[in-house]
Amino acid sequence: MATRLILAELLPGFQQRAGVQVSIESVGGVDAARRVQAGEAFDVVILASDAIDKLSASGHVLPDSKTDWVHSGVAVAVREGAPQPDLSTEEAVRTAVKTPRV
Predict the structure, then answer these.
(1) Distances in Å between the alpha carbon of 36 and those of 29, 54, 74?
(2) Which of 18, 19, 55, 68 is packed most tightly, with the most Cβ within 10 A?
(3) What is the domain range of residue 14?
């Protein structure tokens, strides 16, 4: 949903140049993917890369229509001298985030 703010900022200039009205609907990724899978029509769907890959593999979006638009990195800081947490898998990250640190 962070893309909503970026799109809202870009929208007026695009509409003026293209001469078309555009409507943006911002929903959570799970809801968006569910709606696409249910057959609801959209001109553009912006989701995480793996979600688009799943929709493409299941035939719900046009093959080869995926365009990477933004890279969203994640940073982790660890106090000097503290052991570095295991971040090698999704479950390891969940465990590291839930583990209380002193």
Answers:
(1) 11, 11, 28
(2) 55
(3) 3-57
